[in-house]
């Protein structure tokens, strides 16, 4: 029984469909409206919910920090009251009914309140923390956009490679069927080629679905429906990793790293909190003033009728805590312990950042080595395929050898493309780990994309 043949039967001597042509045709279908990585990042900045939430939280933190300054500024208030009263004096047989109105304007100005001053200092430090958190959110968005961008490119490459492999397997299947029909080979070659062709069809379906999912994720991130990322320009020339020393990356931005800034400011806030606790023993002094206008019936005989009274006062209000049941002393102990915790958190942040930078650096170096190895493997796989095809034509190789060589070549091409994307992503992760990732870094990657 003969194996079923695919729809098209190319010539047995026809060369493989050039992969560059496959990729070019795919780019022509979507290249007209292709976007660069920097363009999609800018679109994500205005649409991504996580980033917009972080930006709103940043604005809220700034407003919250500004509230602490109120403890150092004057306070003023206006109060008014009105009432009805009836009084009877039995001794003289007199009864009176009258209305009472009063308006009071009061103001105060803190002169010496150390706790308020320290609270304001803490609020100024929280502004740096809010900015560092927003910077982290921006860096996270850069990485998420880049990851989604290269995921789509990798899925497109995989689909192109699978389709190119399907074309090659179809040609091999057609050749095996013709050779079987003329009696130069057994039915085994046709069945092996048919099995491999069916397998590639299944891989094509999976690759198409994976591309749809990755495309949907990128569309959702940037808030568009027609996103088409630009592919890497051929030939691909990955930039060198500079500086080529992990310690140089560790020492690059030691104090401006968002993680270090947050941990440092938290330690400083904890130290100020200790000072606030110790200030519980200190006195407070306020300047207070009041002006009141009151109108009501006279309560002094023999004056009758309503009387208006204007009262103005100004003075100093002093308060000195004497004993609070050891609450202040225990509060100081608590804040000292929290201060030590913040100091330990700062040290942990430094160690974690050091580890992250070195790990990211090794990841980039390893990725560059994989790219070089896979480039050599691609050339070797192509040579092996050419040799197996020639051997199959002269009868020293069987059909399965050619199919295996084809599969190895296209798998190597997929791995090489993915390794290149991983190197570019790894360089961005290295910059994030060192606290130096900026939107301008995407411009460097854009220079590697096809125009």
Care to describe what's here?
- The chain is of the alpha+beta class and 451 residues long.
- The chain folds into 2 domains: 19-73 and 113-282 and 324-446, Up-down Bundle (Outer membrane efflux proteins (OEP)), CATH 1.20.1600; 74-112 and 284-319, Single Sheet (Outer membrane efflux proteins (OEP)).
- The protein has helices at residues 19-30, 37-45, 49-67, 114-181, 187-222, 246-250, 258-278, 327-394, 399-433, 441-446; strands spanning 75-89, 94-112, 284-297, 306-319.
- It has a 4-stranded antiparallel β-sheet, with no helix packed on it.
- Strand 1 and strand 2 form a beta hairpin.
- Helix 4 (114-181) runs antiparallel to helix 5 and helix 7 (258-278) runs antiparallel to helix 8 (327-394).
- The model is unreliable at 1-31 (pLDDT under 50).
Primary descriptors:
alpha+beta; Outer membrane efflux proteins (OEP); 2 domains; 10 helices; 14% strand; disordered N terminus
Present the secondary structure layout:
Layout: H1 19-30, H2 37-45, H3 49-67, E1 75-89, E2 94-112, H4 114-181, H5 187-222, H6 246-250, H7 258-278, E3 284-297, E4 306-319, H8 327-394, H9 399-433, H10 441-446
Antiparallel strand pairs: 1-2, 2-3, 3-4
Helix pairs in contact: 1-4, 2-4, 3-4, 4-5, 4-7, 4-9, 7-8, 8-9
């Amino acid at each position: 029984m003969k194996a079923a043949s695919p729809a098209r039967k190319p010539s047995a001597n026809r060369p493989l469909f050039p992969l560059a042509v496959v990729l070019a045709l795919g780019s022509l279908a979507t290249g007209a409206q292709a976007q660069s990585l920097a363009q999609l990042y800018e679109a994500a900045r205005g649409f991504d919910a996580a980033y917009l939430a972080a930006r709103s939280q940043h604005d809220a933190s700034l407003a919250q920090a500004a509230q602490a300054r109120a403890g150092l500024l004057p306070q003023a208030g206006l109060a008014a009251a009105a009432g009805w009263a009836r009084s009877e004096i039995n001794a003289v047989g007199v009864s009176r009914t009258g209305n009472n109105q009063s308006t009071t304007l009061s103001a105060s100005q803190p002169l010496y309140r150390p706790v308020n001053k320290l609270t304001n200092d803490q609020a100024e430090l929280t502004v740096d923390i809010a900015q560092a958190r927003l910077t982290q959110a921006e860096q996270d968005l850069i990485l998420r956009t880049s990851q989604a961008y290269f995921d789509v490119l990798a899925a497109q490459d995989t689909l192109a490679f699978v389709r190119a492999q399907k074309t090659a397997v179809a040609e091999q299947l057609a050749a095996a069927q013709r050779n079987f029909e003329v009696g130069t080979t057994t039915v085994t070659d046709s069945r092996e080629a048919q099995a491999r062709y069916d397998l590639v069809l299944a891989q094509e379906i999976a690759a198409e679905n994976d591309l749809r999912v990755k495309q949907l994720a990128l569309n959702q991130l940037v808030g568009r429906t027609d996103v088409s990322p630009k592919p890497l320009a051929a030939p691909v020339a990955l930039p060198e990793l500079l500086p080529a020393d992990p310690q140089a990356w560790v020492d690059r931005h030691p104090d401006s790293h968002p993680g270090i800034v947050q941990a440092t400011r938290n330690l400083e806030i904890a130290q100020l909190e200790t000072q606030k606790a110790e200030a519980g023993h200190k006195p407070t002094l306020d300047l207070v003033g009041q002006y009141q206008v009151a109108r009501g019936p006279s309560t002094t005989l023999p004056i009758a009728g309503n009387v208006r009274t204007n009262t103005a006062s100004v003075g100093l209000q002093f308060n000195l805590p004497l004993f609070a049941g050891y609450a202040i002393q225990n509060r100081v102990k608590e804040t000292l312990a929290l201060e030590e915790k913040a100091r330990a958190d700062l040290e942990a942040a430094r160690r974690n950042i050091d580890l992250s930078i070195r790990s990211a650096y090794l990841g980039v170096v390893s990725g560059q080595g994989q790219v070089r190895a896979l480039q050599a493997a691609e050339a070797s796989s192509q040579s092996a395929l050419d040799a197996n095809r020639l051997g199959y034509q002269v009868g020293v190789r069987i059909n399965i050898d050619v199919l295996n060589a084809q599969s190895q070549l296209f798998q190597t091409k997929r791995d090489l493309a993915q390794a290149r994307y991983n190197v570019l992503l790894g360089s961005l992760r290295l910059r994030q780990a060192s606290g130096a990732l900026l939107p301008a870094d995407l411009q460097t990657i854009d220079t590697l994309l096809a125009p």
